[in-house]
Design a protein that fits this description.
single chain; mainly alpha; Arc Repressor Mutant, subunit A; two-stranded antiparallel sheet; two-stranded antiparallel ribbon; 6 helices; 4 strands; 51% helix; DNA-binding transcription factor activity; WH_DNA-bd_sf; WH-like_DNA-bd_sf
Amino acid sequence: MKLITRDTDYAVRALCYMAKRRDEVVSVTQLVKSLKIPQPFLRKILQTLNQAGILESQKGVGGGFKLARPSGDIYLFDLIRVFQGDFELNECMFKKKLCPNRTTCSLRERLEVIEKYAVSQLEPVTIAELVKER
């Protein structure tokens, strides 16, 4: 299990890079060179962020991407949702059916406590904070 997937990690790295450049339009080529992320993979991530309203794209000569909103308004947990879906440590799945013990399982209760703690720690983190911490 991964708390942060590669997609989310690359998205965070790209957004931090752009946040340092504020309103500058950053090309995919510039991001690939600086972040050492494979271009097709990065392009897909940037398009997903654009569709989610986190980035704006500009086409043509001098085109690329820039933040659609201030970095202080882009939350790590929102990125996790975009790339990973709902945050859940254990889906309690068995052969594609819900476990019959889901409501009475004591392990599930403990996992829910851990999930709530993880969410409480991740929810308030913004790209602006991550840029400042580096």
